[in-house]
Each structure stands twice: as C-alpha cells, then as structure tokens.
Specification:
By secondary structure, the chain is mostly helical. It has helices at residues 3-16, 24-34, 46-55, 67-73. The protein has one domain (3-73). The chain contains four helices and no strands.
Length: 74
C-alpha cells in the first residue's frame, strides 16, 4: 500500500464529492486498480473505478456494464 497515493485518492474524492469521505474499501479497490490488480466488486463501484484517474490523469478507464442484459435475466 502506498500512503501518499491513498491520501491523494481521499483528498480528490472529498474535493469532487462535496466533502464526502470515501469508505476504506473504496480506497482499497481504487488503489488496487491503480496498481493493475484484477478486481471484482459487487456494490458501490462507480467511485472506486474512477479513483485511479485521481492518481494519473493520463490513464483511461473503460467500464463495460451490461445492465440491460442483467436486468432481463432477473
């Protein structure tokens, strides 16, 4: 774990979300993505997927979410 990276994620999150504080698991997930780890997350995933961009604005994140298909399967 990188304390400076985690601190930057928290600061950027608060600045971009009206002072909200991220959950520790969101920071864990965002850091893991930044480090290139394969990750799975079931809930609360929008911000953790974006968090690596707080550390490197040259990165690009592509999220593929087949919500319509998943909804039809329910």
């Amino acid at each position: 774990q990188s304390a400076p990276a985690r601190a930057k994620i928290r600061i950027e999150f608060r600045e971009r979300n009206d002072g909200m504080i991220p959950h520790e698991w969101q920071v864990d997930f965002g850091e893991a993505l930044h480090l290139g780890a394969d990750c799975s997350l079931i809930t609360g995933k929008t911000m953790p997927f974006v968090m690596p961009l707080f550390l490197d604005s040259n990165k690009m994140i592509i999220i593929i979410s087949p919500l319509n298909t998943l909804e039809e399967d329910q």
